[in-house]
Amino acid sequence: MASLPAVSAKSSKLAATGVWLFSRPGFESEAGREWLDQARTLGIQGSVELLADTGLVCWEASARVPVETRAEQYLPIDSLVFVRDVVFELGRVEPLPKQDRVGALITALDARIPERKWGEVAVHVPEGSPDADLTAFARKWTAPLAAALRRHGRLKEKRDRGARRLDLILPDFERLIVGETLPGQRAAFPGGRPRLRLPGSAPSRSTLKLEEAFLTLLNDKERGRWLTPGMTAVDLGASPGGWTFHLVGRGMLVTAVDNGPMNAALMNSGQVDHVRSDGFVWVPERPCDWMVCDIVDKPRRTVDMVGRWFQHGYCRASVFNLKLPMKKRLEEWRLCRQRLEEALAGAAGSFDIRAKQLYHDREEITVMVLPRGAG
What we know:
The protein is α/β, with parallel strands linked by helices. The chain has helices at residues 28-41, 67-70, 101-112, 132-151, 207-217, 220-226, 242-249, 264-267, 299-311, 329-344; strands at residues 19-22, 46-51, 56-61, 85-93, 120-124, 165-169, 176-181, 232-236, 253-257, 272-275, 288-293, 315-323, 351-356, 364-371.
């Protein structure tokens, strides 16, 4: 695992420093560049240090920005694609003692931020960490840690997700990065890593991609409006039925388009019409509510196909994946977004484009097109 940026150790003391960006391991460069570009458009200069294959990027502003105000100066996290979550660092506890780690943290908090009370606490281990013991420790440590913080008056009695969250990053057993996230400036799930369970009857693990997309790219109100039983959907490249499975579970009527076979149990639901055809060629006889597509192909070809669906009014909303090339991923996404915006300009109405590299994605990103103001 890559080492952390060098800092002078100040045992049990905190000093506000940088910002920690969470990404998929191997995509640290895209996340760092995306953040730098965003900050520069706002006139904020800084530099990033990439922790290769950890899923972590450390950003430092050239001029120190007060921790109380700096979060408000950045664009919402929803505007970032390769950055899954953002933690604003308050400082570090290093070396972290082997005994009474909780006590060391509380001592540091009392010294640096004596009065703040957080709504909840999250403990993060770098996604690329090879240390299984560290991951197991973090999972077991969270509950007693929360109880101790609550007894000490540093955590609210009941979980409050509308308040600041205390975020702790454990790169190893010797160091603790202490930070926080703010409502409206964080991912729907800590670190952008949802805990979703794959149903035993799901035809493939890809069903988790669509579930995460709806949970991440739609808010509660939009889910209530756009994911209702009786809606119609088209799943292009559906075989064996991972995405169709999730749509059926939400009570939708699905046209599954693929020359390959569909899961037999799924076909027995009575909610699926299997059309054997090429997803890039087939078009519906009547408009549908959702068009979803998880076909692995050139991203520009996928974007152009999606654009045609909206220009012809074949669908009202869409979710699709783009498999980006290993080199110039960020550049390819920006080019694809521009092509999609140009295509949507020729469609009736106006649309929002939302995109994120989800936890259950691999080399791809997930994109959603939704009518503007449709919540």
